[in-house]
Amino acid sequence: MNKFMDWLENSFAPKLEKVTNLTWIVVIKDSLLQILPFILAGSIFCCLAILNNYVPSLPSFWTPFGWTMSKISLMVAFLIPFNYCEKKKFRKQRIIAGISGLILFMIFCEPQIQAGGVVGQGQDLYGAAGMFVAIFAGIISGLIFGAFAKFSFFKEDSPIPDFVRQWFDALLPIILTVCLGWLFAGILGWDVASAIQVVFEPLGKFANTPGGFILILFLYTFIYSMGISTWVLTPMSEPIKLQSIAANLSLVAAGTATYHNLLPFTETFIYTCYLWIGGVGCTLPLVILMCRSRSAELKALGKACLVPGVFNINEPVVFGAIAWNPLLMVPMWLNGLILPALTWLFTKVIPFAPIPKIQFELWYCPYPISTLISTQGSITGLIFIILTFVVSTFIWYPFFKAYEKEKLAEEAEEAKA
To answer: Which DSSP string corresponds to 304-339?
Structure first.
């Protein structure tokens, strides 16, 4: 165990940190996080849409939902080249680069819908379904504008005003970006959007298999236990989660949603329904154990972490007790394996607890309130989240007692000194 921990601390973690700081990883992550307010707004409208089933006279809340969640890929196509230019300090080009990324994305989506033989806009891809296409278009636009960031038609001592120079200097990358999209999607007739989706489709399918579901959620707990934020997985996981919830909502709208075909790898299922009580790794049971500890240090830490933990904010307990502490890292890993397996069993294999049919991504809503909302008041869902809490407590308990014993010995030594 000591050799393994030494390898993690001195070899694995530093290399992973380097990956997390790569320019494009940071740019994509930041861009996806910046659309989070629109996703949360869409989540609220989705929940309010339930009222339309009971009060038909109300205006449909699916309309504002469409103007938030159904446009997030458009936002990402703009934000990625914008943030890339911002990070590379090409500030003069950032807005034009963002708009060019948006145009390129729309060009790629162009062949998706054909009505009466007339090519129309692939608006289905403007939402979560086109996320990988938007990322690709954003990267291409960012690279083109980055390549021409220092190019200018004018000399530095030119008397022409800066804003006029910027207009003309932006012409070349704009034309290249548009012509690139026109070449592939228009002249050659390539369905770029479908090709990109085909490439990433296996990743989405894998995440919604038992092995993929458990492995990815274990990875969340594994890297978080080393103090590395799980946001680093955003470029990979967020598009899949958004596409899964979009597919689920389509099944619900069509009236064909069952536990067989609903996809579990969604933000709602993982963060607000069953799994991460208190935050990634299900840490609220540990916080409660700390609050009842005989160790003064652990008791004080537990009390400090309790209120954030109730609202699923677990950075205080992770960085205060778990990170790089083998006695608490191991149970966090076990939670990352056992709880996803248990959740899959009782939702996908045995349909005891329902898979959410709405989008509810307000992850800071306390459990089990969030479970009741996301499952639309399911009693079996409530029973299952209580079972999850109990199982997690049993996982944490023996490791916590060993850690508490160490702390009590340290405190006794300090008292003697």
So the answer is: HHHHHHHTT--HHHIIIIITT-HHHHHHHHHHHHHH
